[in-house]
Backbone:
């Protein structure tokens, strides 16, 4: 019995130590920049990934010192040292990010991850996708588990001010509402007393309530945890209407038995600009992510895509020469190579190519460009000048 | 009671099928009505189901993504390591079959045959060779096991060593076996790793907690009781949520604390509390006389516990513990809150493939079938184990 007691005491002691150990650090964790804590963990896997321990050891000792003050450019350097970009994605959103049968990720968001990797490493495959659930995505960003979040995240003020920064919008979405055509509804007023299917834990649910309350319409929310059950319930007649991002409604409608039996009302319940998020406090890394997104937009504006880019190498247009890094030192300012735009366009494509590949007419989603056209074509995509 | 039922059943075995049906299904007008109604109901449901399974369902979503469902994104060039784990597992299963035929014979036979049959399916050549090899190893193991019936202790020990070995093989080390990060684990492989490690770790912890709770020392028993009651008062998903989402915020170096390890720790701590209560029930069922007899023989408390009390107590609680393990196996699907790509998580991601939108019925049915195979095997083996070592007859 003595021996048992001893082992039990040792076990308990360990438990107590584990339980109490982190507590003193927890408070100052919250006050310091979230970026500051990333160094320790993100370098760890690289130790395992590539064995040359000696090269990693110095960075590890150097990083905590720099980390406490969250110097700009920290994260980019760490990503370069690590040798791959860790990109947080949804992993289960059709058209945006999902696993393919061969184990790779594909989709609109996944392609933007690749674009960032192409800009940083010159190789779009040096990216590691990390599927994240709705609940843990921001924690993963704050703790440095991911470098950047391309996870259909709506850019809002409260999120922007809570330990993360946003890059430029990659996809302008809006919340819409789909109803059965035989219901004959055309406005929200027609949905008085209707059962509406909605996914919980998203801004969608809040917007729905806000809009209906503002107009004094009563309705009956039917809440689901996941996307699929939400649409299932709607298609089985459990609800009169289903609400979600318009892009999603359109793509889901194509999977219904009779797509013409469902109508998407001509109302927008909310603005949903989906943008990449990064941890707060590293302006250089934020610049990199932002300007990679702008690269794809600007390339489309110039009419440069992955197939014709070589024709532009001998162009006389000074804007394009600067954009492609033939003249000037634009890339160096970001801490990247001067021709990072060329790599992004060649290896991943411009915005139109990324959009069409994942959401365009050749896919089951067949999304209209709509607001996601360039400003020249009446959309909202607008890149600041590359100069 | 047993003799009575034998007397009744013996003549029935000789009874003609028609007579059996008449006696059992149409013995009275009420039974006839019930039989007709229930078979009509079964026919409507089952015929619809069969029509759906064989004509409407699009099973291509499973066929195309089979690799994802089995091993997730585990690199293909390293996949032999997983096969090796399966091969070792099947060999051990075969050996166990030879040594303890009553316990695992059916499961081993079904698994072995299934593997051999699967080898006939149109997979790649290497896959089929591995399948056939693993299937054959079950039977070879059985033949070897029969020859060495005394090796039970060694086989049991190998089962124990197998677990860490399996994890090492899967993860790899040094230059010889390139490291496969746990984030590349997925599908059935991840589900099994979570369940098996969870079971293997929570059992000893649970036993310790049970003994601790009955300890005469108030400090120990209080701590154990507090732990058990605290964990049992909290839903599993909360524990998982705490470990997956809150913990990284409190512990510096969030990522160094692997997400899968976090999940395993959460499952272990949770299940251990329940196991502890099950085992405590077993401990309390042991008559006082056993303790006194052990003391009379001069055994110290440690020896009393390990040689007299625990073997009896654990035998009693096999059914309850297996129930707990089965529930742990199924609960592993809750890691979906951390977007880990376990069997169900892969299903979720596969459903987002643009080619297979809206096929959740097929995917969920497949996932359910895989879960069923494993949980049913577990409960079957536990039933046999119970019968063999006599716990069920007490």
Residues:
């Amino acid at each position: 019995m003595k021996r048992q007691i001893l082992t039990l005491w040792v076990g308990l002691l360990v438990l107590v130590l584990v339980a109490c150990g982190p507590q003193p650090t927890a408070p100052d964790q919250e006050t310091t920049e979230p970026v500051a804590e990333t160094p320790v963990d993100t370098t760890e896997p690289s130790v395992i990934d590539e064995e040359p321990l000696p090269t990693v050891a110095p960075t590890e000792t150097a990083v905590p010192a720099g980390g406490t003050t969250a110097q700009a450019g920290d994260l980019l350097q760490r990503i370069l040292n690590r040798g791959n970009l860790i990109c947080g994605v949804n992993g289960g959103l059709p058209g945006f990010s999902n696993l393919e049968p061969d184990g790779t990720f594909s989709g609109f968001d996944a392609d933007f991850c690749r674009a960032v990797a192409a800009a940083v490493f010159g190789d779009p495959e040096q990216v590691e996708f990390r599927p994240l659930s709705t609940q843990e995505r921001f924690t993963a960003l704050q703790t440095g588990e991911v470098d950047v979040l391309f996870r259909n995240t709506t850019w809002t003020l409260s999120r922007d001010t809570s330990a993360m920064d946003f890059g430029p919008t990659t996809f302008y979405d809006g919340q819409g509402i789909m109803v059965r055509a035989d219901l004959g509804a055309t406005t929200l007023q027609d949905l008085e007393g209707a059962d509406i299917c909605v996914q919980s834990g998203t801004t969608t649910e809040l917007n729905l309530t806000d809009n209906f309350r503002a107009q004094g319409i009563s309705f009956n929310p039917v809440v689901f945890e996941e996307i699929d059950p939400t649409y299932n319930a709607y298609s089985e007649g459990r609800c009169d209407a289903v609400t979600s991002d318009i892009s999603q409604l359109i793509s889901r409608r194509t999977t219904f038995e009779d797509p013409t039996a469902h109508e998407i009302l001509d109302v927008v319940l909310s603005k949903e600009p989906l943008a990449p998020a990064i941890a707060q406090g590293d302006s250089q890394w934020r610049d990199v992510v932002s300007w990679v997104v702008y690269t794809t937009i600007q390339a489309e504006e110039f009419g440069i895509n992955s197939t014709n880019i070589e024709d532009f190498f001998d162009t006389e247009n000074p804007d394009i020469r600067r954009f492609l890094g033939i003249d000037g030192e634009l890339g160096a300012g970001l801490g990247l190579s001067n021709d990072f735009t060329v790599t992004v366009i060649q290896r991943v494509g411009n915005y139109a190519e990324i959009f069409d590949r994942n959401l365009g007419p050749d896919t089951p989603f067949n999304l209209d460009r709509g607001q996601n056209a360039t400003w020249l074509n009446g959309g909202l995509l607008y890149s600041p000048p590359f100069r | 009671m047993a003799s009575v039922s034998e007397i009744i059943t013996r003549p029935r075995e000789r009874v003609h099928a028609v007579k059996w049906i008449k006696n059992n299904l149409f013995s009275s007008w009420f039974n006839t009505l019930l039989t007709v109604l229930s078979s009509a109901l079964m026919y409507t449901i089952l015929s619809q189901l069969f029509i759906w399974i064989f004509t409407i369902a699009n099973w291509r979503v499973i066929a195309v993504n089979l690799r994802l469902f089995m091993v997730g994104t585990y690199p293909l060039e390293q996949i032999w390591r997983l096969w090796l784990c399966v091969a070792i597992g099947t060999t051990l299963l075969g050996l166990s079959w030879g040594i303890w035929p009553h316990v695992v014979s059916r499961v081993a036979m079904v698994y072995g045959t299934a593997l051999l049959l699967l080898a006939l399916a149109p997979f790649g050549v290497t896959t089929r060779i591995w399948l056939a090899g693993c299937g054959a190893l079950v039977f070879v193991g059985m033949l070897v096991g029969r020859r060495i019936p005394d090796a039970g202790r060694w086989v049991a020990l190998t089962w124990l060593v197998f677990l860490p070995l399996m994890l090492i093989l899967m993860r790899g080390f040094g230059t010889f076996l390139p490291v496969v990060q746990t984030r590349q684990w997925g599908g059935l492989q991840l589900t099994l790793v979570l369940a098996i490690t969870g079971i293997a770790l929570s059992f000893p912890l649970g036993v310790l907690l049970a003994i601790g709770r009955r300890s005469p020392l108030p400090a120990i028993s209080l701590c154990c009781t507090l732990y058990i009651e605290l964990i049992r008062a909290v839903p599993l998903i909360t524990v998982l949520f705490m470990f997956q989402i809150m913990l990284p915020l409190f512990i510096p170096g969030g990522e160094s604390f692997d997400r899968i390890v976090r999940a395993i720790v959460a499952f272990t701590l949770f299940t251990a509390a329940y196991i502890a209560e099950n085992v405590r029930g077993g401990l309390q069922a042991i008559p006082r006389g056993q303790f006194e007899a052990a003391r009379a023989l001069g055994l110290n408390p440690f020896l009393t516990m390990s040689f007299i009390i625990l073997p009896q107590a654990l035998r009693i609680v096999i059914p309850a513990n297996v129930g707990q393990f089965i529930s742990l196996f199924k609960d592993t699907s809750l890691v979906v809150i951390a977007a880990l790509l376990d069997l169900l998580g892969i299903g979720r991601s596969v459903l987002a493939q643009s080619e297979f939108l809206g096929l959740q019925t097929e995917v969920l049915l497949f996932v359910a079938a895989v879960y069923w195979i494993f949980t049913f095997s577990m409960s079957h083996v536990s039933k046999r184990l119970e019968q063999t070592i006599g716990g069920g007859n007490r």
